[in-house]
Design brief:
With about 575 residues, the protein is α/β, with parallel strands linked by helices. It has 3 domains: about 160 residues, 2-Layer Sandwich (Nucleotidyltransferase, domain 5); about 180 residues, Nucleotidyltransferase, domain 5 (2-Layer Sandwich), CATH 3.30.420; about 190 residues, Carbamoyltransferase, C-terminal domain (DHBP synthase), CATH 3.90.870. About 40% of the residues lie in helices and about 20% in strands. β13, α13 and β14 form a beta-alpha-beta unit. α3 runs antiparallel to α5, α8 runs antiparallel to α12 and α16 crosses α19. The chain is globular, with a radius of gyration of 23 Å. The model has no long low-confidence stretch (mean pLDDT about 95).
Length: about 575
């Protein structure tokens, strides 16, 4: 029974995943257990969760695979030291980078210290972008596919264009730092007053409110070449010190305005900056995907890397690049490399024949009825145990209540897919503002996603047949924006999740019951957390979030808690 543990840490979004006899048994992000958003430390709790779920011990692990090649990271830091040393704070920055690469080089020892003397597995160090690519190929279930990865930077690489022919990855083209689409977008994020390497999705949401006033400028800043590379004009932006220090040149700021301070008013100029920067990124992604379609002749594409979280870009690629099927990995950020590292290490040791693609992303922790009841007893709050918890949940949503839903195994990746979700009625135009302000405590311009019965998706979203991971956007069908205004973004799009009885029977049943009550097979779905916190992991987390926000009810099958009506 081959056992391979994959993990990532020391940059952001630390996670662990475990393959047992070719099957992905478990995967989880460290932040869910530590409650530190984007936790980058060694993922001790995620590793322990994976071993426990797989029913193995440290002595059973055949190989532990890490998502980076530490020596290459150190070499790249030294290579770019000239850009650091002669800038304010540059020396300290370089020392910090080298200290980080040293921690990576000692990660095997860290793992041994954690798991104890019975851990004697070999260590494998996997190229970062190849870890992104392998995760997308494996989870897609495709035999052959083109692959596109884009992020801030791995060791040196910032993108790969390649192809999978079965379990064999061939690179066609690629880009190297400082030609980075991820750091480019982080510079935009910082300029707009948001947190880089965290709030990029806010830029994507804000972009829909603006126009392409500065599109030509941003398309000079970043572009894709005809041979499949990304080119960033470093005269227009300084990105050599990565996402947290990237900024535009003074000549650019004179055109688009100064850096917005956090908390300052968002102006129409800010909206136009977001819109223009987003259009430039979409143009890069689309051109690279089109090149892949032409050069490979393949009709399937997989997408990974942190830029793959840009669901608007993914939607453009899906509609316009010419592929019959596009699969953006649901966890394309660094957490997903824990899966890719495990797969990349597994194949040369044990072959690909036993690999079994996962059915979905419900790979995290779950809790028994007894454990949930114990948490409820400890909370000293009244609860009920309805005969039909799905109907009661749907009825509450249909009555205008905002409901936290905690059930089954936790999702892996940044999207809540019905097991750690907050649900609301998409028919109410005011529900978007209610959930944003009273529950999520976040900016009012942020959109919410619809979860839809898959066999009805085409009625509500143009060209949407299957979209199970909320990772691409679609136009809301004519006449339906008036029916589901709370999940229709200002530009007429929606980031759709389709649900079937096979993918999530319990969640499908709730949406089906809501459809029976209202005639609308769609609910508003957002992650079960508040601003600045990770998605809830445990019943205690769910109860804490429930009582600390404006949620009206908590559905935690088979139990239900309903707050008294607010006056």
């Amino acid at each position: 029974m081959p056992v391979v543990l994959g993990f990532n840490c020391y940059k952001h979004d630390a996670a662990a995943a475990i393959l047992v006899d070719g099957r992905l048994v478990a995967a989880a992000e460290e932040e869910r257990f530590t409650r530190r958003k984007h936790d980058s430390d060694y993922p001790a709790k995620a590793v322990e969760y994976c071993l426990k779920t797989a029913g193995v011990t440290a002595s059973d692990i055949d190989c532990a695979a890490y998502y980076m090649v530490p020596g290459e990271v150190a070499r790249e830091n030294i290579r770019y030291s000239r850009h650091y040393l002669f800038s304010p704070g540059g020396g300290n920055f370089l020392l910090g980078q080298l200290a980080g690469s040293r921690k990576m080089s000692l990660v095997g020892a860290t793992l041994r210290d954690h798991l104890g003397p019975s851990f004697r597995a070999r260590m494998a160090f996997v190229d970062h972008h190849e870890a992104h690519a392998w995760a997308a190929w494996y989870c897609s279930g495709f035999e052959s596919a083109a692959v596109l990865t884009m992020d801030g930077v791995g060791e040196r690489t910032t993108s790969i264009l390649g192809r999978f022919d079965g379990p064999r990855l061939s690179r066609i083209a690629g880009s190297a730092f400082p030609n980075s689409p991820g750091v480019y977008y982080s510079a935009v994020t910082k300029h707009l007053g948001f947190e880089p390497d965290s709030d990029e999705y806010k830029v994507m949401g804000l972009a829909s409110y603006g126009g392409p006033e500065f599109e030509d400028l941003f398309k000079r800043m970043i572009r894709a070449t005809d041979d499949g590379r990304i080119a960033v004009d470093t005269d227009l932006m300084d990105i050599h010190r990565g996402v947290h220090f990237a900024r535009f040149a003074p000549s650019v700021e004179r055109l688009i305005g100064p850096v917005r301070r956090p908390g300052e008013e968002i102006t129409h100029t800010h909206e136009n900056v977001a819109a223009s920067a987003q259009k430039a990124l979409e143009a890069v992604g689309l051109k690279l995907a089109t090149i892949l379609r032409s050069r490979t002749g393949l009709d399937r594409l997989v997408i990974s890397g942190g830029v793959g979280l840009n669901c608007v870009m993914n939607g453009v690629i899906e509609r316009e690049a010419g592929f019959a099927e596009v699969y953006p990995l649901p966890a394309p950020h660094d957490a997903g490399t824990s899966i890719g590292a495990a797969v990349a290490a597994y194949i040369p040791l044990f072959g690909a024949d036993s690999l079994e693609s996962p059915d979905g992303m419900y790979l995290g922790s779950s809790y028994s009825e007894k454990e949930i009841e114990a948490a409820l007893v400890q909370s000293k709050q009244p609860w009920t145990k309805p005969e039909d918890i799905h109907m009661e949940t749907a009825r509450l949503v249909a009555d205008g209540k905002v409901v936290g839903l905690f059930q089954g195994r936790m999702e892996f990746g940044p999207r809540a897919l019905g097991n750690r979700s907050i649900l609301a009625d998409p028919r109410r135009a005011d529900m978007k503002d209610i959930v944003n302000s009273v529950v999520k405590q976040r900016e009012g311009f942020r959109p919410f996603a619809p979860s839809c019965l898959e066999d009805r998706a085409g009625e509500y979203f143009e060209g949407c047949g299957k979209s199970r991971y909320m990772i691409s956007t679609y136009m809301v069908a004519p006449g339906k924006a008036e029916v589901i205004p709370a999940v229709t973004h200002v530009d007429g799009t929606a980031r759709v999740q389709t649900v079937t009885p096979e993918t999530n029977e319990s969640y499908w049943t709730i949406i089906h019951r809501f459809s029976e009550l209202t005639g609308v097979p769609v609910v508003l779905n957002t992650s079960f957390n508040v601003k600045g916190e990770p998605i809830v992991e445990s019943p205690v987390d769910a109860l804490r979030c429930f009582w600390g926000t404006g949620l009206d009810a908590l559905s935690i099958p088979p139990f239900l808690i309903v707050k008294p009506d607010r006056f």
